[in-house]
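To illustrate the input format used throughout this study, we show a single complete record. The first block contains the structure-token representation of the backbone; no residue identities are included at this stage. The design step must infer an amino acid for every position from geometry alone.
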């Protein structure tokens, strides 16, 4: 199972569903980092230092950091889906085929 770090805009119900699926998910509020806005590069650096795959809905900025060659422990960039359980399952399935996740960008898109 994956070790994730979800940034501040990631839905808590998805985090909880991923935990039920056996993933280790650390949230931004659990680190105390929500008191101040962090630049995206700092968020990615924190996740990388903690050896955690970043979970984000902020696709554009984190895909750009990946394309810029910033080293990371993995990025899962998701499209928002209000069907939280379904989104968690798509994330779970996507990361199962990507081992190791370090340095990889995994895109999880909303399905119809």
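Output of the design step:
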């Amino acid at each position: 199972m994956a070790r994730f770090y979800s940034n501040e805009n990631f839905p808590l119900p998805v985090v909880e569903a991923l935990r039920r699926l056996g993933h280790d998910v650390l949230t931004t509020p659990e680190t105390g980092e929500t008191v101040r806005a962090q630049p995206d590069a700092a968020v990615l650096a924190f996740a990388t230092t903690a050896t955690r795959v970043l979970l984000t809905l902020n696709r554009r900025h984190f895909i750009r950091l990946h394309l810029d060659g910033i080293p990371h422990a993995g990025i899962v960039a998701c499209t928002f889906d209000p069907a939280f359980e379904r989104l968690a399952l798509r994330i779970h399935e996507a990361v199962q085929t990507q081992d190791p996740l370090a340095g990889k960008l995994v895109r999880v898109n909303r399905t119809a």
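Structural context for interpreting the output: Strands lie at 3-6, 24-27, 53-56, 75-78, 105-108. The chain has a mean pLDDT of 91.
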